[in-house]
Structures are given as C-alpha cells and as structure tokens.
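Here comes just one.
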Amino acid sequence: MHMSGFFKRKHDMDTVINDMLRTEISELRKLRHDLIMRKFAFLTAFMGTGAISIVSSAQASLNFSLLLFLVPFVAIAFDFYIFVEDYRIKRAGEFLKRLQNLPDISENQKIEGIWEEFVAENPDRGATFAFSVVTLIYAVSSLLLLIALKYTWWILTIWFIVAVLCEGAILLRHLTLREKLRKPTPNVDAMLARLSSPHEKEEDV
C-alpha cells in the first residue's frame, strides 16, 4: 500500500470526524435553545399561577402562592442543563480547533480552525451571565410577590439566599470548566502529535 493511499484514507477519516463534531455542535445548539425557551415558558406559568393568590379575593382550596417559592429553583435547574449543553458545545469546538494541527487538513477546515481559535480568544461572556441574570430577575420578582403576600421575612431571607448561592455555584462550576478547556491536555496532545507525524505508518505493501 502506497503512502498516497494511506494519507487519502486519513484525510477522509479527518473529514468524517470534523463533520461529525460539527453536526453534534449544531444539535447541541438546538437543544440549548429549546431548553432556554422551555425555561421562559415554565417560569412564566409558575409565576402567573403563583400570583393568582394576590388578585383573587376568594380562598382557594390550594395555595398557589407556594409555587412562587419554586420559581428560582426551577430556573436554576434549567440553567444547570443549559450550562451542560453549552459546555459540550465549547468542548467539541475546542477539539475541532486542535484537529487543525493534523496533516492533510483542507483549506476550509483550516479556516474553520482559525475561526474556532478566534472565538475562543474573544468569548462572549455576556451570554453566559445572561442566563443567571434572568434567573435572578425571576427570583427577585417572586420575592416581591411573596412579600406582598406577607410571608414571614426570615423564611423569605433564607429562601432567597439559598437560591442565589445555588445559582452562583452552578455558574462558577460552568466558568471553571470552560477555563479548563483552554488548558493543555498532555495525553490528548501527545496522541494528536503522533497523528501529525509524517513518519506515522510509513510501511508499503
């Protein structure tokens, strides 16, 4: 088997992996978008139902205002899964960027790698913080409604602090994992270096 045949198969394999990762990124972005839309839908429904106790003078058999206590924690649960999908997108993008060091990469793939590097060097951190800001807005809105319903202040204080700490914890975890992606990974880098070596599998048949 000649070297040209080996490199052709290797180029085809690189293309398949590249396309597979980009398909995965596209699907993850769609899933993240769906989670964001569901977050708004669920929170709006919870707050609307919970606020019924304020505008209704009749005593209901169920105290819907208790749903307001769940609003920030439902938002936090959605943020956790949104951050997971966001991290998976960043992880696939980082690996795609490292693939550009392999031989026989097409010009388009090289340009895509440069774009991945540019995006990594100029991240839009506002988008990440926006999820937590929205959650905080919903938490504050729920707090104000619960104050209007005259719930005990110390219960509200503990509830609000716990909610803020939980959101802060998952946000910090997400940012830490994203920063870790930028650090060298000796094992993976060594494997890619071996694939990049022109002496890899030089045998002829």
